[in-house]
Amino acid sequence: MTGHDRGMHEWTSATEELASKVISYAKSRIHLDPVPLDRPRTLPELQSAVGETVTAEGIGGDRALRLFADVLAPACISIDHPRYFSFIPCAPTPASTLFDLVVSASSLYGGSWLEGAGAVYAENQALRWLADLAGFPPEAGGVFVQGGTLANVSALITARHSAREQLVSAGTGGEEPARWAIAAGAEAHSSITSAAAAMDVDLLAVEPDSEGRLTGAALEATLGAERRSERPRRPFAVVATAGTTNLGVVDDLAGVSRVAGREGLWVHVDGAYGAAAMAAPSARHLFAGIEQVDSFSVDPHKWLFAPFDCAALLYREPAKARSAHAQHASYLEPLQAAGDWSPSDYALHLTRRARGLPFWFSLAVHGTRAYASAIERTLEVARYAAEQVRRHPLLELVVEPQLSVVAFRRLGWSSRDYHAWSAELLESGVAFVVPTTHSREVVLRLAVVNPRSSEDDIDVVLDSLGP
Ligand SMILES: *Cc1c(COP(=O)(O)O)cnc(C)c1O
């Protein structure tokens, strides 16, 4: 290497060539139609097809890109395939995916106003739209984090921090209870259990009503029973779910808020999957009461058409989050002195990608009305699926769908039948639909969040279930 040689950071004719190959690969993948479903391969299969790629000399851009395009990418299921109905799919708009490339190219630091003011300004406008959908006050605000899991634990850390501060200011000596606790519906997401474990607090599971919802009355009963128990734990928050992952059930947010208000509990709404439907006029009524809660989260990488990974966390009073999360270190002082809005201060993180920008860009390009109608379209297809299940002699809905998750059973099938059918569908490249369980019964579940999933796609899946 000579003194002027910047090695691999140099832009050479080889880099130029690699740039056009990478960009043209990315562009053609974004507009592939139909996109292949693809499927996982075993480790031995990948070992024999790919071998070792990390070597002392490097394998070169051509070969690395070819291996990715020919072997590695096809060994990943395409989450934007219109018949990917498992878990929660993700269907980014072309605008959002294209802008993800721009975010990477721009060397942005999204943690502080000092370094990323322009990016943070734009992200905050996207957050404001979400806050407005919920009816949050003007001073509300938040941050985009990696996923719903991190959003939930960050909100709960803020909630406990606030509860501790209240203890101190109440002048009761600030004595910590023996055990803190979070109340949540029995159908709350697994990330709430993880958050409780990480925070070393207990979880009070509240029994759902007949429709699977957490209600104010059930919350009150659980809190009352806890108070009367021998060693009562101190609840500081309740997590309501706005769209359970398994069945798409929205808890009774107004009822839960009413009881939580009386009991002095922080209300966090986990809307990672479902809260996007606040933008859909036909579903907005399900979220009544969300305007009163302390925080909520919603994943743009689920039902708001942004690429992975992007979750929005909104606080009614962001100052409480800053007090819980702002990191203090001598080298960080220049960032805090000015009192500017720094996204790092509102969740459990420091360095952050400006991961809200792809979502912001698409929202800015297309406008909010396009979002409302794309979400309505998915609801329409989900309602079509439910109707076809009702009509089918061998199928039966598990619950009446509220959002875009349709769960149903195939009469006469055992767990083995469900799994064999699912594996065959993936193997043949037709669809990706994994069974789930509800009340210990194996059932099928379709999650529709891709506006390119059509009635025909539903028919293909349902027709494969027998006459
Ligand atoms: C998906 C989901 C989560 C977790 O979100 P990640 O982005 O996967 O971390 C939390 N809660 C609910 C209700 C979800 O659907």
Primary descriptors:
about 475 residues; alpha/beta; Aspartate Aminotransferase, domain 2; Aspartate Aminotransferase, domain 1; 16 helices; about 45% helix; binds pyridoxal-5'-phosphate
Strands ordered across the widest β-sheet? 1-7-6-5-4-2-3
Low-confidence stretches: none
How many helices? Answer: 16
Just give the CATH class of the largest domain. Alpha Beta
Total strand segments: 11
Write down the Rg. Answer: 24 Å
Distance between the termini: 70 Å
**Secondary structural class:** alpha/beta
Mean pLDDT across residues: 96
In the CATH hierarchy, the third-tier topology of the largest domain is known as: Aspartate Aminotransferase, domain 2
Strand content: 5-15%
Query: Biggest sheet, in brief?
Result: 7 strands, mixed
- The number of distinct structural domains comes to 3
Bound ligand species: pyridoxal-5'-phosphate
What is the ordering of alpha helices and beta strands? HHHHHEHEHEHEHEEHEHHHHEEHEEH
CATH architecture classification of the largest domain: 3-Layer(aba) Sandwich
Helix content: 40-55%
CATH superfamily of the largest domain: Type I PLP-dependent aspartate aminotransferase-like (Major domain)
